Amino acid sequence: MSPFSSSTREIPAVSGVPRHVAIIMDGNGRWAKQRLMPRVAGHSRGVESVRNTIAASIDRGIQFLTLFAFSSENWRRPADEVSFLMQLFVRSLRKEIARMHANGIRFRVIGDLSRFDSSLIELITESEELTANNQRLQLTVAANYGGRWDILQAVERLVQDFPGRQEGFTEDEVAQRLSMAFAPEPDLFIRTGGEKRISNFLLWQLAYTELHFTDILWPDFDSNALDTAIASYRLRERRFGRTSEQLTAVGSAGIPPAPHA
Ligand code: IPE
Ligand code: IPE
Ligand code: MG
């Protein structure tokens, strides 16, 4: 059972710093194209932004950082770009995992791993096991991930767990089987690269997340850009369906949970 409540029921604890930040790292190809370089050069440079964003997140006290690295639709790209991305994933993970472990980072991958090479699956499993007791930052990489896949696999598990159930299922029963059941729902979503869409990222979990879109291309994303996103988040009033007056009258702690989801 997840220790975190659903935003459709209770108001999560609000602090100045978002507890969970989820990022669509977009714009690598355009960054490279602007410099007359091959698209894949943008992916390589994007790894540096990942490293900087992890460090800045730890620095700012963010507890969960979730990065969309490869969508279930990205297999549609040219085969050589897909293969470059896979190799980059392997190389970066091999290079960084010891340092991540030393820095107290817990590493996880969410997504349908069945399409990956067995060597990559092994590397992911080893990295997850190595860092399993770390608590400083929970870093999740979404790879071959799709929000629809996630909901579908949760429902399939639910049906397996309760064969023949007649009375239907609850939101919590689905949420507990989603691949991010270990984490609170994202407080802040960031998409770089200028597109204003979710592209099949965490569909269920983003229901009440604050959205921040920036034109900055992922390889140019840095700690200042993260601070801009956090500053924008801090100006938001998260109401979760309630009225502004309800929130200001008693403070979020005094508001009773919704009678039903
Ligand atoms: C994001 O950058 C990285 C992945 C999707 C793997 P893109 O490769 O989508 O870059 P643009 O959007 O073409 O610029
Ligand atoms: C979203 O970026 C997926 C990742 C960043 C991994 P895309 O570049 O694939 O998204 P679309 O195709 O523009 O929606
Ligand atoms: Mg893109």
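^ IPE complex. Residues 25-30, 70, 74, 85, 193 surround IPE (ligand 1) (CB under 6 Å). The mean pLDDT is 93.
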